[in-house]
Design goal:
alpha/beta, six-stranded parallel beta sheet, three-stranded antiparallel beta sheet
């Protein structure tokens, strides 16, 4: 039996979220809200997103429910507004102005529900010269300086999948903004628009680096700094089997333990002389090439040398620490990351398999008291519940 997505579970239990279907950071943000216990209803478009991904495996839709609405149909916008009238949060990821043209922009939604938190997820933001341009994660992080930080100094910047921009600089900032605005709405009864731009969030993530740059403690080039692989005791090394080990022995006591276990205690003083870092790096690399990744993992096991094996996606769930914490979970035959973070009083869990487009129309119509989702709408468009009472 499928898990009950509406059952109380998690700190956001009782919060209703409408997600206008999109791709990337918007769905991930809505997934996080669902993981935290919110009742997330995804409004899918007829025909789906066209990404070629089996909806049954799209984990960003786990724990949600789905209805299908054609916003280009004459009744489509009104059906979404009916849902917005009963929601606490709405999330959309269209280009600026698209939601307004479709009739489901902030003004139309707030006319039905003044307390609604309207979350907007874009790459460039709602304003600025690039606001109307197409884009993807790599371009957003490129102009913030973040991409420039990553990779070897003699090679082009390395591409960090779409984790840094879409999800860290985008989804997580949207969720923070939505939760802050939700608190404000519950205190004041007034909703607002949250403009979450990937360029803003990614730039914000680099605050510490900018502080170091201002203090002349960071060079504005790759592979020349403490935390970007520039120093030989903070980086990755290849092992005898072609795999890799990650080293983060920054503090003196951890570095000393690292050098002892690695078998190079005589070179430890090179730490304090950047002119010798090249020599140190060559020696460390040679040592790591003498054994396999798993052999080195055993050498450093139980130590404070700050050394870890670089695991693949399929290996990670089996790491003893992650297995002990149940960092990954199996649900519906799919191994997937478990909800995070963790709560002592309101624990979370994966509450349902990925929502299949349109599969939950009848139950959403019943639970949200929106019968027009499953039949013709009334001729008038009067709100049945224009504002859910805000709690203090």
């Amino acid at each position: 039996m499928a898990a009950d997505r509406t059952a109380p579970h998690g700190p956001l239990s009782g919060v209703r979220v409408v997600e206008l279907a999109g791709i990337g950071p918007g769905p991930f943000a809505a997934m996080l809200l669902a993981d935290l216990g919110a009742d997330v209803v995804r409004v899918d478009r007829p025909g789906g997103q066209g990404l070629g991904i089996d909806p049954a495996h799209d984990l960003t839709n786990r724990g949600k429910r789905s209805v299908v609405v054609d916003l280009k149909d004459p009744d489509g916008p009104a059906r979404v507004l009916d849902l917005a009238a009963r929601a606490d949060v709405l999330v959309e990821g269209y280009r600026p102005g698209v939601a307004e043209r479709l009739g489901v922009g902030p003004e139309a939604c707030h006319a039905r529900n003044p307390a609604l938190v309207y979350g907007r997820m874009t790459g460039w933001g709602q304003s600025g010269p690039l606001a109307d341009r197409a884009g993807h994660d790599i371009g957003y992080i490129a102009i913030t300086g973040a991409l420039h930080l990553i990779g070897d100094p003699d090679r082009p910047p390395a591409v960090p999948a779409n984790l840094l921009g879409d999800y860290a600089g985008g989804s997580l900032y949207l969720v923070v903004g939505v939760l802050a605005a939700l608190q404000h709405a519950r205190v004041t009864g007034t909703g607002q628009v949250v403009d979450a731009a990937i360029v803003d969030g990614t730039a914000h993530l680099s605050a510490m680096i900018h502080a170091m740059l201002a203090a002349d403690a960071w060079q504005d080039r790759r592979g020349a700094n403490l935390l970007d692989g520039g120093c030989p005791f903070y980086g990755t090394y290849e092992t005898a089997d072609g795999r890799h080990i990650a080293v983060g022995a920054l503090e003196q006591q951890f570095y000393d333990e690292f050098m002892t276990l690695l078998g190079l205690p005589e070179l430890a003083p090179a730490r304090h002389d950047p002119a010798r870092w090249g020599e140190l790096r060559v020696a460390v690399a040679a040592r790591f090439k003498s054994r396999t990744r798993d052999e080195w993992t055993a050498v450093f096991d139980g130590s404070d040398a700050c050394v870890a094996p670089v695991l693949s996606l399929r290996e990670a769930p089996h790491h003893p620490h992650l297995a002990a914490r149940a960092t990954f979970t199996d649900h519906g035959g799919i191994t997937q990351p478990a909800p995070a973070p963790r709560f002592s009083a309101t624990p979370t869990a994966v509450r349902g398999a990925p929502a299949l487009p349109g599969a939950d129309t009848a139950t959403v119509a019943r639970d949200w008291d929106v019968p027009q989702l499953t039949g013709p709408r009334p001729s008038t468009d009067q709100p049945r519940n224009p504002q859910r009472k805000a709690s203090s």
